[in-house]
Amino acid sequence: MNFFINVTLNGISSGMIFAAMALALVLIYRATRIVNFAQGAMGMFTSFVAYSLLQQKVGYWEAFAAALAIGMVLGVVVERIFIRPLHGKAELNPVIVTIGLLIVFEGIAGTIWGSTNRGFSPPFSQTGLRVGRTSIAFSHFDLFIVASVIILMAVMLVLFRFTRAGLRMRAAAFAPETARLLGVRVGRVLTLGWALAAVAGSLAGLLVAPTTAFGPLYMDFYLVYGFTAAVVGGLDSPVGALVGGLITGLGVSYVGGYLGSSLEPLGALALLMVVLMARPEGIFARTAARRV
Amino acid sequence: MPKIPRPPKWFHLPRQPLVRHLILAIVAAGGFYLLTNDILSTYNTVLVGEIAFYAIALGGLSILTGANGQISFGHGALMAVGAYTAALLMVHTHFNLVLELLIAIGAAAIAGVIVGIPATRLKGPYLAGMTLILAVGLPLLGNQYGSVFNGDQGLVTTPPSPPGSVNPELWLTWIEILGALVIMVLLANLMKSRFGRMFRAVRDDEVAASLAGIHVARTKVIAFAVSAGCAGLAGAFLALSSGVVSSGEFPLSLSIEILAGMVLGGAGTLVGAWWGGIALVFFPQWASSISKAAGLGTGGNAYLGTIIFGAVLVLVMMLAPSGIQGGFRRVGSFADRRLFRPRGGDVTKSLQTGSE
Amino acid sequence: MLEVEGVSVQYGAVRALEDVSLTAEVGAITTILGANGAGKTTLLRAMSGLVHPRRGTIRFDGRVLTGRSVEQVVRAGIAHVPEGRGVIEELTVEENLRLGSLILGSRSAQKAVIAEVLELFPPLRDARNRYASSLSGGERQMLAIARALASRPKALLLDEPSLGLAPIVTARLMAVLRELSRSASLTIILVEQNARSALSIAQSAVVLNLGRVVAADTASSLAADTNLRHHYLGF
Ligand SMILES: Nc1ncnc2c1ncn2[C@@H]1O[C@H](COP(=O)(O)OP(=O)(O)OP(=O)(O)O)[C@@H](O)[C@H]1O
Ligand SMILES: [Mg+2]
């Protein structure tokens, strides 16, 4: 029983990180129909910047804020320089460009920071909390993970539902031409989408960093699981990102806990297959009527 | 798509595709023989062998993506299936090499069918997601079932023993090149056949294809199986070249490189598969010699190759959206139109098979 | 006043418009008629900047619009209700309207204009919190027009608003349009298949055929020209 609870808690905390990654992917996918494979690497890169700042004795929160801000700039730059010129070209090309960027970012990070894994010091303790006299597999840092992703989701929700920028972003994502006819500057809105996605990706990077061997490739797995989560939830749906993230996190954690950690990705694959066979566009797929 | 210029008058290949492809393959084999036997050092010869097996994997993927419109991030995993199958056969049986390779191809093709059946229901990015997680997950089975696959240590393969005094590495290279040429001929013919037309019809418009009496799902699964079989052979050759098969040989980055190399070379063209193979094999080599020359030491050189590969990929996708081969073709047809009109185009373009 | 002068539009090798000119007066309805593929939609798209003419100029209140982006044209006061309505199904009725009003800038102006257009189309008022995907065809058309009006345009471009509507709904719609053009001194350009009802409310009319203007006159004299009617308008 204890084990089950710990595995569940573990799944929730990693699921929240998958959800943040998935949200980043969804924000870009719904606006531009591109899966940004560089998302994880961008988060890795900004986390390394935060790492360097921490080495310079900058405070954690300053470094945290700086990483998110740099992530945002990186998102804008990538969209403007690499993605915008490919607008309206063959579908596969921008996706392959993001793969190229993934490779370049990892290469640059490896050149600057080396390939040896480092330790990224967490802002909160990573030892398990105590409930009564037993210690559970959930630390202050896990609490921080869950809280910050919930805050991220809430901010995005408010932004999308209740602000004018959010309304413009939704309109541009659903019906770009109509949005233009109503005066929405779709180009700017897409850039904003990439910027927000990059913030979510950077947050994921910062949350993963203290929990893993921190090297240039550390976000690869999270990209894969984040993508799985996004697909499970439905690539068009931010709510799907959250739900997909939690389902994937729990699924992976149960498989790892009960069957062995080498089977985790195949567990995720099985989960993905089950969901996609029932709903080929994810749990929160938009009504299929629109896009034929 | 620019029109493919006709070859010059004095160089008329037969119209019959099989004969034409065979002639080209034999010419290429002669070229490779000269290259590996007389021109290159043993070290570089081994690299040519690597290019050959990458070209097999890339060619197969190129047909899946370029001709049939399905994307796969999982070809590294399918290579692993071929590699482990071949290695298990080598460890436990005494079949001859050709039979072992054929079984490896068959095993990977079956894996391709298993992946391909659910794939028929999925659209682009959803298929990408499924195959991506497959690429990560499948090779890890090697660790999970250590008693069969010998875990991290992996299985040791037995390299084919050469006749007489031939250098074993050279012999293996020749086998790989021969395998690649056979696959190229088969794929080129497939693309000219009814199946090739069905692949393309399904890619262009599934509804129209099914109205025309094509069984869409079956066609997609066949494309997946063919492509996976190629990956299986490439994996078996990889196993022979590296001498050992372990899950570490098939990281996610292999799958991504295969896809990237294929698109870089030019999706849908078999010649492009060779360009992609050359890029995959030589970029790391060049990068390490560049960084040695620039005195960057050995620490960063692994990354310089990575950076160059990624940057080239980005640039090619932005500047020559249909890949290296597509770019050549454009330049070629431009030059042909402007400069060489009276004498016709160059020979490489008549190697163009597999694309419309 | 919206002036089109010698406009030609080409899609690749297809010549969709060839040397088209027309003038639409303030406070009047100008209808553009013609068979399928005549170039009516293309003409509206050229006016709103969705396609760029190869030749010719389009002027609005004396300002040249040609070469400007859609967003700039919208801000110049031109609202385009596209063919097939273009309501955004994933947004609620109110969100669609808010989207239309965004270029007004101030929140109070947006609130006011939304209240106004809801007044004009009462069925929308009851449906304001529903997703547009749940609306009927007629309601969608109302929403599309209301949303266009929410930007307080000086000119309204309508592409086949009666398509798929019951005759009674069409009649009501036409009445609303006539009312709007009079009271709000709006320049209305109305593309229609339904030539009879369009001519009944329009002041002037232009008939396109294969991308060229074949007739341009007051609505009443075009409606009286039986030859032209038989040839191009089919009634
Ligand atoms: N995007 C496009 N690409 C190529 N040709 C086009 C495009 N849009 C329209 N055309 C062509 O331009 C011509 C005019 O089309 P347009 O849509 O303006 O006609 P229309 O008068 O609005 O017709 P309808 O009454 O059927 O809506 C047609 O021949 C059409 O095929
Ligand atoms: Mg039209």
| Rg of chain A, Cα atoms, Å | 19 Å
Q: What's the overall geometry of chain C? A: globular
Through-space gap between termini of chain A:
48 Å
How far is the N terminus from the C terminus of chain C? Answer: 30 Å
**Strands across the major sheet of chain A, in which order?**
1-2
Low-confidence stretches of chain C: none
Number of strands of chain A: 2
Heterogens: adenosine-5'-triphosphate, magnesium ion
Mean pLDDT of chain A: 90
Order of helices and strands of chain C: EEEHEEHEHHHHEHEHEEHH
CATH homologous superfamily identity of the largest domain in chain C: P-loop containing nucleotide triphosphate hydrolases
Question: Can you describe this structure?
Answer:
The complex is a heterotrimer of chains A (292), B (356) and C (235). Chain A has 292 residues and is mainly alpha-helical. Chain A has a single domain (2-278), classed as ABC transporter involved in vitamin B12 uptake, BtuC (Orthogonal Bundle). In chain A, 71% of the residues lie in helices and 3% in strands. Chain A contains eleven helices and two strands, in the order H-H-H-H-E-E-H-H-H-H-H-H-H. Chain A has helices at residues 2-32, 39-55, 60-83, 92-113, 140-162, 164-174, 176-181, 186-208, 220-233, 238-259, 264-278; strands spanning 128-131, 134-139. Chain A has a two-stranded antiparallel sheet with strand order 1-2. In chain A, a hairpin with a 2-residue loop joins strand 1 (128-131) and strand 2. In chain A, helix 1 packs parallel to helix 5 and helix 3 packs across helix 8 (186-208). Chain A is globular. Mean pLDDT of chain A is 90; it is low at 288-292. Chain B has one domain. Chain B has a two-stranded antiparallel sheet with strand order 1-2. The longest helix of chain B is centred in the middle third of the chain and has 27 residues, at 216-242. Chain B is globular. In chain B, 53% of the residues are buried. The model of chain B is unreliable at 341-356 (pLDDT under 50). Chain C has 235 residues and is an alpha/beta fold. Chain C has helices at 40-47, 70-75, 93-101, 107-120, 122-126, 137-149, 167-183, 195-201, 219-224, 226-233; strands at 2-11, 14-24, 29-34, 55-60, 63-64, 78-81, 155-159, 187-192, 204-209, 212-218. Chain C has a six-stranded mixed beta sheet, with helices on both faces. Chain C has a four-stranded antiparallel beta sheet with strand order 2-1-4-5, covered by helices on one side. The radius of gyration of chain C is 17 Å and the shape is globular. The model of chain C has no long low-confidence stretch (mean pLDDT 90). The chains are: A mainly alpha (292), B mainly alpha (356), C alpha/beta (235). Chains in contact: A-B, A-C. Chains A and B meet through helix 4, helix 9 and helix 11 of A and helix 5, helix 11 and helix 13 of B. The structure holds adenosine-5'-triphosphate and magnesium ion.
